[in-house]
Amino acid sequence: MAAETDKGFGSLEKAIRILCLFDAETRERSAQEISNSLNIPLSTTYNYLKVFLRNDILSKDENSGKFRLGWKVFKLGVLAAANVSLLEIAAPYLLSIARRTQETVVLALIDGLDLLCVDTIESIRPVKLTMKRGARLPMHAGAPGKVLLAYNERSFLDEVIQSRGLPKVNRNTITDAKALGRELEVIREQGYSQSDSEVDSGAAALAVPILDYTGRAVASVSLIGSLEAILGRHRAGLVEILKEASEGISEKLGWVRPASLIKQGPESIGK
After folding, report:
1. From CA 214, how far away is CA 250, in angstroms rounded?
2. pLDDT value of position 262
3. What is the 8-class DSSP label of residue 201?
4. How far apart are CA 118 and CA 131, in angstroms?
5. What whole-number distance in Å separates Cα of residue 17 and Cα of residue 23?
6. Domain range holding 121?
7. Number of folded domains in the chain?
8. With b meaning 16 or more CB within 10 Å and e meaning fewer, what string describes 73-88?
9. 155 in the same domain as 75
10. Could you tell me if 8 and 34 lie in one domain?
């Protein structure tokens, strides 16, 4: 009985390994490719593939003869994503950012038409800038909100402008719709946003988007601090740290990096 059980687990493991061969870089595989990758007989491979096809776990392109993940996998992914907590996933990444940068880290998301801070880790520096949990800001004021505007539908931006306007919060707040539109284009091009004295005088911020399985920005992760600390000579390194973290969080939310960007590294997120 034990031997039969072990054999059953071995078959299950092979089935899982077949499914794990499909990723953003290789969305389709032939039976021969699967057989070669896992070093299992081609006849055995076809037996697994027949079961997957019968249960809609895989589908087959009739022209190429190759196999791809089926709609049942998508359904399971959606269900898994619904049970995932953004705060739980993001927590270790926020801690890592804080340890590496020693600056204040903020996780924020869209709440209605406003930006809501849902988690923060304060800098250990004697003089620091903070943003409290539960704090709300206009979407257009500061890097955390602007990056969310940049990576959401244009209709959302229009609704924010129509309902909230673009009030001046501090001396560098963008209050012109056309100027804001140009700023958002730059943000999408470079993959991050920055701000200087848009909310508080002397306060600077860098922010990147966190994407879900649809590719939509659901939150932003940002660093806030003094102008010199955030936008000075270490800015490029801080941006890369943020992008690495946002990519990790996004992937755990189901985001899949486009295959054309697989080899470009963390700078590809959001592009």
Report:
1. 10
2. 34
3. T
4. 10
5. 12
6. 84-268
7. 2
8. beeeeeeeeeeeebee
9. no
10. yes
Tokens 């500061």, residue? 142
Q: What is the number of alpha carbons within 13 Å of residue 12 lying toward its C-beta?
A: 6
Q: Does 90 share its domain with 56? A: no
94 and 164 both lie in a single domain: yes
Angle at 105 between CA 189 and CA 80, to 5 degrees: 75
CA separation for the pair 184, 176 (Å, rounded): 12
- The domain boundary, picked from 49, 81, 113, lies at 81
Give the pLDDT mean for 203-228. Answer: 93
Model pLDDT, residue 253: 86
Q: Where does a domain end: 81, 109, 136?
A: 81
Tens-place pLDDT, residues 175-207: 999 999 999 999 999 999 999 999 999 999 999
pTM of structure = 0.70
Residue showing tokens 């061969």: 21
By DSSP bridging, strand 203-211 and strand 67-69 are: unpaired
Confirm if 66 and 29 have CB atoms less than 8 A apart. yes
CATH number at residue 76: 1.10.10.10
> Is residue 132 within 8 Å of 115, Cβ to Cβ?
no
CA dist 159 and 143 (Å) reads: 19
User: Is the domain of 66 the same as that of 173?
Assistant: no
Same-domain check for residues 63 and 108: no
